[in-house]
Every structure is written in C-alpha cells, then in structure tokens.
Design goal:
Elements: E1 7-13, E2 18-21, E3 34-38, E4 44-46, E5 53-56, E6 60-69, E7 74-79, E8 107-112, H1 118-121
Antiparallel strand pairs: 1-2, 1-8, 2-7, 3-6, 3-8, 4-5, 6-7
Length: 123
C-alpha cells in the first residue's frame, strides 16, 4: 500500500446495512473508500515458551464502502462484489441464519482508497 493506513472502530450500527466509523474527513477518510471490518474478539495467542501474550487473531467480517463523510466520523454501507446487475449485494449486519453480526468496537481498516480499486480487491 502506498498510502497511510487509516484504522478505527465501529462507533454505531445505524441499521441492518449502515454503520458509522469513528474516523472522518479530519483523518483522511473520503467517500468511496473501502474498509474491512474485523472481529476484535478472536482467540488470544500465547507464546508457549514465555507465556507472554503475543496478540489476538482477527478475522474479516465484511467490507463497507463510505458514502457520507463528516469531520470526525463516516457512514458506510455493506457490500460484497457479485455478478449482479449493480455489482453489489447488500449483506445485513443482524444475527440470523448466516448473517454477519457487527458490534460497536469492531476494528476497521482501510483496504482501498477509492471506488476504482474495488474490482482489484475482490477475492
């Protein structure tokens, strides 16, 4: 990556498809940026030799695209690239059969600076 990393946390789950990130224009967030939302409750990794905590495993829950940027926060919608007409599939945050649960405090990390990089990023 050739830009400064932007990381933060989920500050609010607004509805089933919209969340608020605790970083905004003042932190360099712009409309169209893509963030990965990661679980913050993964298992602790402990060094078997020293017993020292090395960190936690984190898994990506989903990706969101910023659509509204304020000075100190940004609002984003979920998306997953598909072959649909619009290229987007809305994925609800709510816990139900197979749906992803997003929690306030989950970490977010910039993975693409603008919407032009969406297709290159999709796995």
């Amino acid at each position: 990556m050739t830009w400064a990393a932007i990381t933060g946390q989920v500050a609010l789950v607004e509805d089933d498809y919209t969340l608020v990130i605790n970083r905004g224009r003042d932190a360099g967030v712009r409309s169209g940026m893509i963030f990965a939302v990661h679980s913050t409750s993964g298992p602790v990794i402990t060094d078997p030799e020293s017993g020292r905590e090395l960190g936690r495993l984190s898994r990506e829950k989903l990706r969101v695209r910023v659509f509204d940027v304020q000075p100190l926060f940004a609002r984003a919608h979920t998306f997953v690239e598909t072959d649909s007409f619009h290229g987007l599939l809305q994925v609800p945050f709510v816990a139900s059969d197979g749906a992803v649960t997003i929690d306030v405090g989950d970490s977010v990390e910039l993975i693409h600076r603008d919407a032009a990089g969406i297709h290159a990023a999709a796995h």
